[in-house]
Design a protein that fits this description.
This protein has helices at 29-56, 66-93, 101-110, 114-132, and strands spanning 7-9, 16-17, 98-99. The protein is mainly alpha-helical. Helix 2 crosses helix 3 (101-110).
Length: 137
Amino acid sequence: MADIHPRIAAQDGGETIEPPPSDDAPDPPQSRTRKSASIVNRIASTDRQVSRIMKASVPPSAKIAKDAKECVQECVSEFISFITSEAAEKCQMEKRKTIGGEDILYAMTTLGFDNYAETLKIHLAKLRQVRCSGCVG
């Protein structure tokens, strides 16, 4: 049975994140270089966001060691993979290819992150409301 690699779609119909290409058909060298640069830029951007969140959580006079930032960044990556993997399993069982916000909330609840899921449920509803406020209807 072939592996199903779900697409993660934005709730507002925005950019869909495609899974990484399979190892069966290697990309041409030029394509790999552009993709590698894009991935490096995304990772650097994510690292900066995590660093910014950490700095906002401590007093202005506090400093955060580089290894502490790296540790938290690694934890964030693992957490995202853990939750997304559970959501992907649900989608696979339901024969769907797109992971939605509700699937992530389901995964969080299933994995014991109920408190976070409740908070995110509120944020997801607010996000949808803001995105729909511009809708004509």
